[in-house]
Design a protein that fits this description.
The protein folds into 2 domains: 45 residues; 75 residues, OB fold (Dihydrolipoamide Acetyltransferase, E2P) (Beta Barrel), CATH 2.40.50. It is 9% helix and 35% strand. It contains 1 helix and 11 strands; from the N terminus they run H-E-E-E-E-E-E-E-E-E-E-E. It is elongated and about 65 Å long. About 24% of the residues have low confidence.
Length: 153
């Protein structure tokens, strides 16, 4: 969808007073939300894939469980975290040795693991020098954004 169409849609939302407009064109989806009467234009959300729908909790719904701390409490050491969602691999391929093992000394910039995301292999490098104290993921395991991967002290 080109910028002229987007600008026209934004102007339409702001002038008409409607609170929200959603347009699907092929696989492209545009959702414009009017921020209020004081704002001259609306907020634009543009995505190639539909966004997940979140439900607001109701009065009879059970309260959400509190999040569980995935990493153990570490007084000294750096927790290397996943910068993305993907699949964790300890080695570049199944026949190769692991990038690091528990007890290995690592330098800043040394590859710790690979995270595969959308068929791309992303090398995760150490941000600190030290000794690998703990590896918190299994080879081939799915990981989430900001999930702890390694403890380096």
């Amino acid at each position: 969808m080109d910028l002229r169409k987007l600008k026209t849609l934004i102007d339409l939302v702001s002038e008409s007073g409607i609170s929200e407009l959603e347009v699907n064109e092929g696989e492209d989806r545009v959702r414009i939300v009017n921020a209020g009467s004081s704002a001259p234009s609306g907020q634009v959300v543009y995505a190639n894939h539909p966004a997940p729908v979140m439900q607001a909790p109701t009065a009879n719904s059970a309260p959400a469980a509190s999040p569980v701390n995935e990493a153990p409490a570490v007084d000294t050491g750096f927790v290397a975290r996943s910068p993305m969602v993907g699949t964790f691999y300890r080695a570049p391929n199944p026949e190769s040795p692991n990038f690091v093992s528990i007890g290995d000394t690592v330098k800043v910039g040394q590859t710790l693991c690979i995270i595969e995301a959308m068929k791309l292999l992303n090398e995760i490098e150490s941000e600190f020098a030290g000794v690998v104290k703990e590896i918190l993921c299994e080879n081939g395991q799915g990981v989430e954004f900001d999930q702890p991967l390694f403890i380096i002290a």
